[in-house]
Amino acid sequence: MATPVYSGTRTAQRGRPRDASRDDALRQAALEVMAEVGYRALTMDAVAARARAGKATIYRRWESKLDLVIDTCTQLAHRNLPEPDTGSLEGDLREFLSGFAAFLSGPIGKAAQALVGELPHEPELATAFRDTFLTTQRDVLRRILERADERDELRPEAPRGMAVELAGAALIYRLMLTGDPLDVPFVDRVVEQVLVPLVAKGPQEVSELT
Amino acid sequence: MATPVYSGTRTAQRGRPRDASRDDALRQAALEVMAEVGYRALTMDAVAARARAGKATIYRRWESKLDLVIDTCTQLAHRNLPEPDTGSLEGDLREFLSGFAAFLSGPIGKAAQALVGELPHEPELATAFRDTFLTTQRDVLRRILERADERDELRPEAPRGMAVELAGAALIYRLMLTGDPLDVPFVDRVVEQVLVPLVAKGPQEVSELT
Amino acid sequence: MATPVYSGTRTAQRGRPRDASRDDALRQAALEVMAEVGYRALTMDAVAARARAGKATIYRRWESKLDLVIDTCTQLAHRNLPEPDTGSLEGDLREFLSGFAAFLSGPIGKAAQALVGELPHEPELATAFRDTFLTTQRDVLRRILERADERDELRPEAPRGMAVELAGAALIYRLMLTGDPLDVPFVDRVVEQVLVPLVAKGPQEVSELT
Amino acid sequence: MATPVYSGTRTAQRGRPRDASRDDALRQAALEVMAEVGYRALTMDAVAARARAGKATIYRRWESKLDLVIDTCTQLAHRNLPEPDTGSLEGDLREFLSGFAAFLSGPIGKAAQALVGELPHEPELATAFRDTFLTTQRDVLRRILERADERDELRPEAPRGMAVELAGAALIYRLMLTGDPLDVPFVDRVVEQVLVPLVAKGPQEVSELT
DNA sequence: CGATAATCGAGACGGTACGTCGAGTCTTTAG
DNA sequence: CTAAAGACTCGACGTACCGTCTCGATTATCG
Fold this sequence. Notes:
CATH class of the largest domain in chain A: Mainly Alpha
Keywords (chains A, B, C, D): DNA-binding, Transcription, Transcription regulation
Structural class of chain A: mainly alpha
Number of strands of chain A: 0
Shape of chain A: elongated
Protein name (chains A, B, C, D): TetR/AcrR family transcriptional regulator
GO molecular function (chains A, B, C, D): DNA-binding transcription factor activity; transcription cis-regulatory region binding
Distance between the termini of chain A: 57 Å
Number of helices of chain A: 10
Oligomer: homotetramer
Helix content of chain A: 55-70%
CATH topology of the largest domain in chain A: Tetracycline Repressor, domain 2
Organism (chains A, B, C, D): Saccharothrix syringae
CATH superfamily of the largest domain in chain A: Tetracycline Repressor, domain 2
InterPro entries (chains A, B, C, D): DNA-bd_HTH_TetR-type_CS, Homeodomain-like_sf, HTH-type_TetR-like_transc_reg, HTH_TetR, Tet_transcr_reg_TetR-rel_C_sf, TetR_C
Largest interface: A-B, 39 and 39 residues
Number of domains of chain A: 2
Largest sheet of chain A: none
Radius of gyration of chain A: 21 Å
């Protein structure tokens, strides 16, 4: 399910139309509650009360608590992934990863973490979660590497897939596991000490070209 | 809390002593249930029923479901981290990381994942979790790098801390987020494509020594 | 069961002998607790705690809460039913019924009331209860009537059985149902307005004899 | 509390209204369970299961097991006390007491007995109980005597109050204490041997009028 | 005397019911 | 037909009590 469905194919619907502004109010309430108390302690009654809505108004739009939370994250995630194009690999990485780090550091990151524990037992959630938080970000990184490759900045044998995976891993590991801050210095170190050394041509290699 | 405490400092304890064998039976039951249905769906009734115990017997030892699960993981985690010493950096890394990967791939890994969502709202759990799953493993990796350093296998400016962090991040990211398998080929790739290139002296550097 | 049995027929018993003083301490505790909170809210833990005894010490003597309570009442009941013999029907009735009323007004009466609700579902309790609180008192009343009969104080057709039943009913109805006081004026009224008119020869009948 | 109250003074109530049919279903279930296993062994789970109701549905209406049972008895009691008017004291007594005996012999009588033990520790229950099982019946008896008095059937000095008390006592003593049957012969004996002799004018007194 | 055995207080054990609370559904009035 | 409100069933929660069992310590008899 995930996204609220508006009474299907019916063209001329009868009765009071569904109030679309309630969708966002409910998602906002869900996000706030989840950021405050976590996924487990989030209750539908709490969400309904915060949005001054009835529970039926929630269940009319989403099938379950899980469904509400998935959709909330997905919707809010889709507006926050700019794709930089600075002209250099290092610039693109730096810019994209700081943006992603900032995004993860907000309430959506907290919400995402709250969902991790459910992934193994909720295949639908797993799919939605990966689409939202992994795939999109990975695709952007891939395209950054492709553009760098076209600019001939990469070593031929560079482990591109591994680099993409590592970039995400490093950030999310910090965010969810160690609890260390996802700040600019950290992003810089990931770029300078890991990503660039792993995939970019070294100075001697560049000089060899001349 | 975490580990059940047996009447503390009192030397001569009165009344029937706790049956220590119930501790393990309950932890085993908790681990099984959690691996089957996850953390959220784990109920104390289910754990009690599986261990043929009364719920009071659980609550006498652990304050809550969370406390039980923390302790279960901690106890079971402490017996599974051998520290290899093969004489070479690559050998040590390969051996240790495959062991860690195998450990994470079992039920304890599933249990660990189930806990991640609770970390932000349960500081005590966060501490126990990091001690169990992060610190221990990180310290082993550190010592592996130190020994390699003593054998003069590392480049002087090698980002040792980052390498240690990345090793854990790469494994746990796969385990918990992407769902891709933590198999030997993956560990090999992490070692060959990431860790060794980042910290070890390259062939030319070694030859420079001669 | 009812009364604590002391290891049956064995003549030479080994081991530490049972401490007979605990019996009364436990019965006393049980009576106090029951008078305070009633039968339902009486817990074995509370009785044990009040007597500073272990629960096993109770269960070694009585099979169950019910058994303990039955025996407690029975034991305490047996020492309180004097049989008057004043030489006149009215005197005997007055004396006996005031004694019985006083007895019922104490803690034993409260305890007895607490047991009434269990009678239909506990045949053994019912038997013990009737033996203790009904039969004994009824037999005394019967003998009082017999002696009066021998003294030729009764009308030949006097409903002796009904009188006996009514005497008990009147007292216990007040005690347990209406809550009105079981005081001397009430006993007097029962004797003067009910029992004597029902069974004793009237003045004119007595005069007829002359 | 006793009777479920339906949101008091509010005129326009919001939300789904209480399902009044659940009240009776729950009372019926409570009565059945209590008649089967007694008050003490009655569990809320059993009542809920028998009525296919959630426990919350019970607790929404009644504060406790005791409250439920009180209300159950009260409700069911109010429909079973016809007031006879046969034109003669003996006829009225006979008819009323057989009706009351039959009423007490059913499940409601069993339920009433189950409550007796709680009266001393539950003032509210005591009030409700007396209203239901004592006052109503006593008032009917009083009116029967009044009508007999108006018909000049009573002796002037007849102990009217005592007669009323004895009638109830005799029946309830049998029902709850001795366990003897509350059958028609017994009622007849009570009327003929006790009540009529105590209060009605004797034949000689009647003849004196002529 | 030492060994044996049943007692004692204390409290852990398995089990059952408690009264509360949350999930997801249904039913009312109001718009 | 949708909205808010809240009652509905179901099931897990953490607690309390029952009746049993197990501990160390004590107190008797037996050999």
